[in-house]
Each structure stands twice: as C-alpha cells, then as structure tokens.
Amino acid sequence: MTHRRFVVEKAEIGLIGLAVMGSNLALNIAEKGNKIAVFNRTPEKTDEFYESAGDLKKQIIPCKTIEEFVDAIRPPRPIVIMIKAGEPVDQQMELLRPHLSKGDIMIDAGNANFRDTVARFDRLKNTDLTFIGMGVSGGEEGARHGPSIMVGGTEESWKRVEKVLTSIAARYNDEPCVAWLGNDGAGHFVKTIHNGIEYADMQMIAEIYGILRDGLGKSASEISGIFGEWNKGRLNSYLIEISEKVLAATDPVSGGPMVDMILDKAGQKGTGKWSAIEAQNMGIPATAIEAAVAARSLSSMKSQREAAEKIFGTQAVSFPIAYGPELNKDLELALFAAKIGAYAQGFAVMAEASREFNWSLPMPTIARIWRAGCIIRSQFLDEITSAFTKAPDAANLIVTPAFSDMVKESIPALRRVVGAAIAAGLPVPALTSALTYFDAYRQGRGTANLIQAQRDFFGAHGFDRLDGKDFHHGPWGSGASTF
Ligand code: NAP
C-alpha cells in the first residue's frame, strides 16, 4: 500500500512585522492570490493577525519561530521586513541571516534613509544573499488596497519579486504603480523625495487655506467648498480631496469644524528633512521642500509664536484683494504654479542623485508609479509622465514644452497672490519659494557677479570674466585680501 504524503504548499513570499503597515500589506498580498508566510517578534500579534484574516486565512502561513517561517517560503526566498525603521531592521536582519540560503532576498519595506539601505546592500555584497530597499507609499489604506512601490536592488532580485509586487500595487489606467528604479538605495531615495514633495504640496495647500481663513475670513466649510470645486479641475489630487473632506468634518465634542479644534503643531518623521539635506548635499535647489520642512519646525514652536504675537500682532494689513471669482481663479492657479515649482525641484534632485549614485533613475517611470496609490497621487503626475516621456533629457520640468506653457499661464497668478499675502503679513514661505525659484531660474544674467567680486575681495577667490579674457582678480586696492 502506498502512503500519500501531505505536501504543504510553500509561500511565494514572507513578511516580518505585523503592525499597521505589515498586516495590511500581508492581507493585500494574500488577497491577490499569493501564498504568504508571516512572522512578528511578539507572537501574540501573529495570532491576532491570523484570527482576523477571515477568508484570507487559507493564503496565510502564520509562523511562531524564524526557523518555521523561513522553511515555509519557496527559495530563493523574498522576505519583506516591515518593522520600525532604523536599528530594529539591522537587528532583524542579523537574526534572519543564519537561517537563509543562497539567493534569498531581504526586503526592507519601511521608511529607511537611503544611506542605510546602501550600507545594508553593501554589507551583503560579498555574501550569497541579496537586499532590496523598497519604498512603499499610501499609508495603511495603500498597503491594504494598492500602494505605490519603489524598488531598489539588483535586477535579478527584482525579477524574483516582480510578479507578487505587480499584483499588489495600485493601478492607474490598469498600469501597475510599481517599478524597479535602480541599484541599492534607488527605491528608498525616490520614496524620500516623494515625501519631500508631499511636504511641499501639503504646506502650499495649507498656505492657501491660511489666505482664505486669515486674509479673507472664510469658514472651514466655505474653504472645503472651494477645494471641492478645485478638485474637479487641474488641481485634482488626493491631497486636495482629503483637504476638502477634513475641512467639512464636524467635531463631535464642540459641534464646530474639526480643523478649528486641532492644535497647529505639525509632526514630522524625517523624510522631508532628508530630502532637503540630500538636495543641499548635491547642490540642487529644493527651496519649496526646504520651506515646507522649516514651516513644520516653526509650527512646533507654538509657545514662542504666541509670545511673539503678543508683541507684534498677526497681520500687517487686510488682504488687499477682495474675494470673488477672479481671486478664486488666481488662488487656484497660484497653487498650481507653485506645485509645478515643487515637483520640478524634486525631479531635479532625483536627476542629480541618479548621476551621483549611478542609478539611471527613469523620470517618466517615477512619475508614472506616483499617479495612484501614493499620497501625492494626482492627474498632474500623468502630465509629468507625458512631459518627461516626450523630453527625457530636459534639464528641468519647467522647461519641457508642456510645462513651460503651463508655467507661463499660471505664474502671473502666483505673483499676484504671493504679493498680496506678503503685503498683508500672511506667511506663505513655500509659495514664495516656488515663485522666487522660478524668477531666479529664468534669469539669464543673475546677480552672482557681485558675490564673486565680494569673494575675490575678501578671499582672493578669483572669478571668470564674461569676455573670457585671462584676468581673474579685481582691482580692489587697499583693504582687499593681499593673497
Ligand atoms: P511601526 O510602529 O513603525 O513598528 C512596529 C513593528 O515593528 C511591530 O511589528 C514591532 O514588533 C516591530 N519591531 C519593532 N522593533 C523591532 C525589533 N527590534 N525587531 C523586530 N521587530 C521589531 O510599524 P508601522 O507603522 O506598520 O510601520 C512599519 C514601517 O513602515 C516603518 O518603517 C514606517 O516608517 C513605514 N511606513 C509607515 C507608514 C504608516 O502610515 N504607518 C507609511 C509608510 C511607511 P512587535 O509587535 O514585536 O513590537
């Protein structure tokens, strides 16, 4: 008599970390028909997760030990690590390593600094294991129903995970919002810049909200209505959509608008700051992102702001333009123009990083995978995809044929809005940064000739001449550096 052996089907992928992001990602993976093994440091959480998985239980192998977990996955094993970013990832990797075999891939899907990702990738370089740094955007909802996924690692390891990741990613016009973007830290770098742009986008919306609330006396529900209208036009995006919704929500405690009861101190976890730091490291201006990061820091200085308000008052004068259809249109266009500036800066930072780190980052693909699933998703990104596809070597988004026309149309409105806000004493740092970035970028003859002269005066740094003549120091006379 022959005995039939019961063979348990191996999981296609494994996942460690069953907190908010990991559990939602695991359910998404299971729901798309992929068998998944899961593990969490605290085993009770694995039980809780499995018990709440309902019909998806049949696709999930819950594991209590690392040995059991690794054994449950089909080699070469892709293992998603979705735990607290930083040191815990290194600790988890070290615990996993002795149990892995040739070709296995550890995938850090948390919000890692790309420099940590490069270091982790390098540590595994001369071993037979590999590493993927994977940026996942879209929060809890995205993880559960379709995030935007930015992958960095070897092409071979990408091939091993491509099918599963394609099945779980968000879709825009049926195209999956996932791509392999290059080696080692490419995915986490692009995710970082995504977050930097997100900071700028949110800050610019908040500044327009400030003009409407403090400059024009609009209520939260009126501003919600305005954003709702704008969401039907060129500003159509997730962030405008949720702004409309949050401004319309009622506080169950006071019965007034919810936003009016929320403390005006914005949190930050670091990715916006990393974007600004990396932009500075590479010498690429990302002024709108920097302004947004600084604005969050200033927002947290609540007691200092309150003390200063007592000394100086809030507004200098009332907003100089009356609200009506014309100003409404200007505000909408101003936000659009500033948004172009912020995205142009983010893409310029990525273009430079691509050169510096030898990643060959594909700009149209990045815009394409941000069209759905992530926080900055919008119709606008479809236009960026198309602009970079038609002009792949453009030095900057704003000089692509499609965007230069949009900039010409919208910059006058940004100038009017920023001018009026500044006259009224309303803070609009990100909008202003986008405007002055444009004004400086399109100025063929700038003012750095004076800076070069000053540098030569005090430090004998020398300068290049416009006429190309070989005479590189100024006739500064006494008081100038004698070097
Ligand atoms: P989290 O709160 O950042 O981390 C909790 C998870 O990490 C738990 O599973 C915990 O296990 C595990 N953990 C902590 N220290 C550990 C260690 N030393 N060794 C092993 N496991 C450890 O979880 P999350 O909010 O789901 O976020 C996960 C990652 O996704 C983070 O990098 C986060 O920045 C990123 N992310 C989050 C969001 C979001 O909206 N939340 C969006 C995008 C990206 P125990 O249960 O045993 O404590």
Automatic annotation (TrEMBL):
Database matches in Gene3D superfamilies: 6-Phosphogluconate Dehydrogenase, domain 3, N-(1-d-carboxylethyl)-l-norvaline Dehydrogenase, domain 2, NAD(P)-binding Rossmann-like Domain
Catalytic activity entry: 6-phospho-D-gluconate + NADP(+) = D-ribulose 5-phosphate + CO2 + NADPH
InterPro entries in the record: 6-PGluconate_DH-like_C_sf, 6PGD_dom2, 6PGDH_C, 6PGDH_Gnd/GntZ, 6PGDH_NADP-bd, 6PGdom_BS, NAD(P)-bd_dom_sf, Pgluconate_DH
GO molecular function: NADP binding; phosphogluconate dehydrogenase (decarboxylating) activity
Enzymatic class: oxidoreductase
Pfam families: 6PGD, NAD_binding_2
Protein's GO biological process: D-gluconate metabolic process; pentose-phosphate shunt
Keyword annotations of the record: Gluconate utilization, NADP, Oxidoreductase, Pentose shunt
Superkingdom, natural source: Bacteria
Pathway info: Carbohydrate degradation; pentose phosphate pathway; D-ribulose 5-phosphate from D-glucose 6-phosphate (oxidative stage): step 3/3
Active site, UniProt feature: K191, E198
Binding site for substrate: N111, S137, G138, G139, H194, N195, Y199, K269, R296, R455, H461
Limits of the 6-phosphogluconate dehydrogenase C-terminal domain: 187-477
Signal sequence, start to end: none
UniProt binding sites for NADP(+): G17, L18, A19, V20, M21, G22, N40, R41, T42, I83, K84, A85, N111
Enzyme Commission number, as recorded: 1.1.1.44
PANTHER family: 6-PHOSPHOGLUCONATE DEHYDROGENASE (PTHR11811)
NCBIfam families membership: gnd, PRK09287.1
Stated role: Catalyzes the oxidative decarboxylation of 6-phosphogluconate to ribulose 5-phosphate and CO(2), with concomitant reduction of NADP to NADPH.
Quaternary structure note: Homodimer.
Similarity comment: family membership: Belongs to the 6-phosphogluconate dehydrogenase family.
Protein name: 6-phosphogluconate dehydrogenase, decarboxylating
Origin species: Rhizobium johnstonii (strain DSM 114642 / LMG 32736 / 3841) (Rhizobium leguminosarum bv. viciae)
Organism ancestry: Bacteria, Pseudomonadati, Pseudomonadota, Alphaproteobacteria, Hyphomicrobiales
